[in-house]
TrEMBL record:
This protein's record includes keyword Transcription regulation: yes
InterPro entries: At2g31720-like, DNA-bd_pseudobarrel_sf
Localisation: Nucleus
Source species taxonomy: Eukaryota, Viridiplantae, Streptophyta, Embryophyta, Tracheophyta
Keyword Flavoprotein: no
SUPFAM superfamilies xrefs: DNA-binding pseudobarrel domain
Top-level taxon in the UniProt lineage: Eukaryota
Name of the featured protein: TF-B3 domain-containing protein
GO cellular component: nucleus
Length: 119
């Protein structure tokens, strides 16, 4: 994923996902709704183990070619996450999904690459 804090969201194009089976059937149905106000609540855990409340949405984006691409978008508080983790435009990050707790709450881990000076 590439960081662009100006857009107040993290877009994750479907064609870049290693796996796309991380949603429950109920969560998938919520994201299929055409109503753009719906989203799935989740927790994002950053490298400092700070937990952030976020929403996951599905977005259709028009390409220059006129075709549409499907993306997941992490929104609601993304700019705070960017600021707290000192992320900059074009930083290369990874997002891992997992389930936590007895109820299997949808969660994401923000994974940063190792610093360049690390052996």
């Amino acid at each position: 994923m590439v960081v662009n804090p100006v857009q107040s969201r993290l877009l994750m194009p479907f064609n870049t996902l290693i796996r796309n089976d991380f949603l429950t059937p109920v969560e998938s149905r919520i994201l299929l709704e055409e109503d753009d106000t719906e989203g799935v609540g989740a927790t994002l855990v950053d490298p400092c183990e700070v937990k952030w409340g976020v929403f996951l949405k599905k977005r259709k984006m028009k390409k220059d070619s006129g075709k549409e691409s499907l993306n997941y978008a992490i929104i609601c508080g993304w700019n705070d996450i960017v600021e707290a983790n000192v992320l900059e435009k074009d930083d290369d990050i990874s997002i891992w999904s997992f389930r936590r707790g007895i109820n299997g709450i949808l969660s994401f881990a923000l994974v940063l690459p190792p610093p360049p000076d690390m052996p």
